[in-house]
């Protein structure tokens, strides 16, 4: 039997021998877990010292129910309607707690985000070791469940980010920001600006240096320059037939319009780097390299019924003032007239002879408007000059060996009196000095096929002369003979003679 604070059983004595049974008591302590709301964080685990147990007993009148003091929170009260006992809850599906970051990522994934992580274990209230349990303490009655309003989503109890996690549960993942949207308008604007700048740069380069012509024809809409570009490409490739097919007006003379002539032109100076510098419906100007030189050619475009373009005329007429007796060859082809058609390119005039050539043999044709007019001048080649000197020396040696006072085709010219008769067996010529030193033979003004050499021959003559039948001797008489050595240079062998 419990004792009162005074240690006396005075109330029992007042009631006689009647003793009331001891009732269970519930002490409300701050660390009691029965009254804590499930959403509130629990106390930190640690040793718990039991509160001092001070029983208070109150005698109850007869017929009254026994109550415990102080009253327990949630304990059944007499005379008040009691809520129904808690019903067993159906098992909850596994998954993260509603409202958590993992639950939001699982139900509302961001576009393009990684797959949601696997569902976490169901949430369990934390259990702390060492928490004393008190017998006879009724559980906290469950909250009554109220049906949801029509059209209203079920209530989801928020979960505190600082709520303690059950042992073994993984930490909630931090919020993952949705990927930033691609700045498509900005990117499109940047691309458009870059394209505009590139087009402007191409236009400026084309204006300064000309539009590159290689491959442009045929890839876009027909342009007036297409015919001129294709024509020059065919000429540069040595294809005379294709070049002629791209020309509207067909030339009558085709002496030089052959693949052989174009092949010679390409070996001398190939055509490259064709560029369009000016272009109108009536005229096209092209700049291209001819060997190491840059030339310009102007062409008149000729539009065809199918929309393509040719050139009105691609060749040009070359006028030549030919020498009277010297043949003229262009790139190895002999001319028969003074006017001839030629493709654009590099040409070299030649005579076809070893000893004679032209002083300015090379010329170019840049286009149909160049109209070259040529008056080639001839000269001796190095081989021709040497041949003339050698022939002159040979002729002079023969003259010095002659047994005559006045040998034929020689520089010696001795005047004799009518009563004088030389004895040819006694004639002896001796050359005093070499007349060919520093001499340069040239072609004759009157005949461009003949080389000439003006010189002075000095010699001594020894001869016996009969004067009126009486012999007399001339010994070592010095004589000077101005003369001119000439030799035709058209043959393979050169033979000189002297002309006084």
TrEMBL record:
Residues 70-80 have a biased composition (Low complexity). It comes from the Bacteria. Keywords: Membrane, Transmembrane, Transmembrane helix. Residues 28-39 have a biased composition (Basic and acidic residues). The keyword tRNA-binding does not apply. Residues 40-53, 81-99, 112-129, 135-144, 164-177 have a biased composition (Pro residues). Coiled coil: none annotated. The keyword Transmembrane helix applies. Residues 1-178 are annotated as: Disordered. The chain crosses the membrane at residues 188-210. This is Uncharacterized protein. It comes from Enemella evansiae. The lineage of its organism: Bacteria, Bacillati, Actinomycetota, Actinomycetes, Propionibacteriales.
